């Protein structure tokens, strides 16, 4: 039985898990959906006497038997593209058909997913994730989503310190001059800085919480791994993504109520894996600010090996439901 890893050609994080599975003698088939249909041939069948898809996928060097897939690691696959021989007005249709065909057959695989893309999509909607986290007993910052400048100003004026954090709702920013999207980092905003441009789209403003440090909490099945992130630079203290070189990491324990809420949150969304970001206030309270159902995890050196092993356990089917580690 094979572990199917869906990711791009270059993914050093997936490489860690693949190496661990190889060391255990577990067959692995790495595949990038972006190779379909140009460099990947699919023939999948289902019928009256068959309730699962059979057949497989043939690449340049290897064949994947769909019936032999024991689990799927859905990491960072690239998008299915139209065949290079299809152009013009037919290209959008051909691309949509390719995505529906390959994506649909893969999504129908009855096995352990880490995580199923459908579940990633649900948990990746920020307003849904925040509301669900609050219902699971986790503390979240006061949040406003609006396109009304007056509402934004009033919200910020009502906050302690009269300052908010502006955070993008999606995973990419607007396009630059070269047409490529650029990142929108978290920024401090005061009421006087709100302009009428807020009315042009939805904006998310959150209570600015003075913090002692950030937490990256990673969950694999029922195992929880957490690390404090101490940022030396001022920009990284506002948004840790801006300057990873300034960070130092310290594995830490997780308060019982937070661990309970996190497990309930993953249970609601049906996730086997997630990376969550918390701010720890000066009073020691943990505030959830982001849920990343397919977030990065290998950047914390002290936790890289145990998380790799936990992911491999889950994909192999040998994880211990009763074991909990940091």
CATH class of the largest domain: Alpha Beta
Give the oligomeric state of the chains in this entry, treating copies of one chain as homo and distinct chains as hetero.
single chain
Largest sheet: 5 strands, antiparallel
Strand order of the largest sheet: 14-13-12-15-16
* Rg on CA atoms, Å: 22 Å
Beta-strand percentage range: 25-35%
Order of helices and strands: EHEEEEEHEHHEHEEEEEHEHEEH
* Overall pLDDT level: 91
Helix content: 25-40%
Report how far apart the termini are. Answer: 30 Å
User: Low-confidence spans: pLDDT under 50, at least 5 residues?
Assistant: 321-326
Shape: globular
Task: Describe this entry's structure for a reader.
This protein is α+β, with helices and mostly antiparallel strands and 326 residues long. Helices cover 28% and strands 29% of the residues. The protein has 3 domains: 113 residues, Rossmann fold, CATH 3.40.50; 66 residues, no CATH class; 107 residues, D-amino Acid Aminotransferase, Chain A, domain 1 (2-Layer Sandwich). The C terminus is likely disordered.
Quick tags:
five-stranded antiparallel beta sheet, 326 residues, 29% strand, 16 strands, 8 helices, 3 domains, Rossmann fold, D-amino Acid Aminotransferase, Chain A, domain 1, alpha+beta
